[in-house]
Amino acid sequence: MLPERIVFMGTPEFACPCLEALVEAGAAPVLVVTQPDRPSGRGRRLKPPPVKEISEKHGIPVFQPAKVKHPEAQEKLRNLRPDVIVVAAFGQILPQSLLDIPRLGCVNVHASLLPRHRGASPVAAAIREGDGETGVTIMRMEAGLDTGPAYLEERVPIPDGVTTGGLEETLSEVGASLLVRALPGIADGSLEPVAQDDSMATYAPRLKREDGLLDFSLSSVSLERQVRALNPWPGGWFEYGDEIIKVWEAAVGPPSPGNVPSGTTLDRPLVHWTPIRTSVADVLSSLDRRSTGRHRFGGVLRPAQHRTVGAASLRSTLIIKQTNDRPYRVTLGTHFLAHTREGQ
């Protein structure tokens, strides 16, 4: 049987399936705690978190403290006498005094196979590191960052070409199902948590805008993963003259010439590539201009099998294609070359 008095803490889309699953299982939370409404869009109007919208749809009370560590916020939770607090991408660190409030402790839905990728951005980290699989772990929270023992986990393969946004959507559904399976065993004591192996831990810190900057000295494989890992936020980007170019798509393609230094821009298309599995026409993507004056485009990272005497190397090219006749600084056929190392 599911615990009777559940407090749910979550904020983004990732947390919504967990909340919906509790409601569908007949265990609607007595309270939902989420982040405050934030300004959004051009008009900077306050926008409620996705979890708040789901809560209001089901008539569940919502609490939006600026900081849950504040004494008045903790007192409100303590007065509810919760059996368990379920946390899914809430967005604030919970102090030990709050972790001690519920009878069964605080249970976290974490989007990785712990102890790998502890921290705020585990899905992006799994894609960027080239992991073949990831998953969801249901864990008992403690003061350390995602260090608590695990109740259940479920493994999920990472598809080729998937972005963080797409993979998070899959993992959110997996996490919702896993949560409803775990809670009865947590409530009756039949499900014992297993301590993590701290020696195997890796960390995925909160993403920052500068994490999206593309370094063309890296391999095309690394850059392609970076673009997917940072979609939808902050997005891959680089500077070209006085413009900031946002990269939303990338693909590893056929060879490019190896006689141009890393980071060089070429003014016209290269016509002497050796095709491998695909053609230039197959991999060109679109670019459009936003009202902000910045660019959104799909790019192509193209490695080469170029070898030099005494050392192996790869080179990558990013190709941008215009979709209308506006006079962009970045024009049809512009190429961005990156010197890379083989096997990375």
Low-confidence stretches: 266-344
Q: How much of the residues is beta strand, in percent?
A: 15-25%
State the order of secondary-structure elements, H for helix, E for strand.
Answer: EHEEEHEHEHEEHEEHEHEEEHEEEEEEE
User: CATH topology of the largest domain, what is it called?
Assistant: Rossmann fold
Q: For this structure, what is the CATH class of the largest domain?
A: Alpha Beta
What would your notes on this structure say?
The protein is of the alpha/beta class. It folds into 2 domains: 6-204, 3-Layer(aba) Sandwich (Rossmann fold), CATH 3.40.50; 209-340, Methionyl-tRNA Fmet Formyltransferase, Chain A, domain 2, CATH 3.10.25. The protein has 8 helices and 21 strands. It has helices spanning 16-24, 50-57, 71-79, 96-99, 122-128, 164-188, 220-229, 280-283, and strands spanning 6-10, 31-33, 38-40, 45-47, 62-63, 84-88, 106-110, 118-119, 133-140, 150-157, 203-204, 236-240, 243-249, 265-266, 287-289, 295-298, 300-301, 307-308, 311-312, 314-319, 335-340. Strands 5-2-1-6-7-9-10 form a 7-stranded mixed beta sheet. Strands 12-13-16-15 form a 4-stranded mixed beta sheet, covered by helices on one side. A hairpin with a 2-residue loop joins strand 12 (236-240) and strand 13. Helix 1 (16-24) runs parallel beside helix 6 (164-188) and helix 5 runs antiparallel to helix 7. The longest helix is centred in the middle third of the chain and has 25 residues, at 164-188. It is globular, with a radius of gyration of 24 Å. The relative contact order is 0.11. Mean pLDDT is 79; it is low at 266-344.
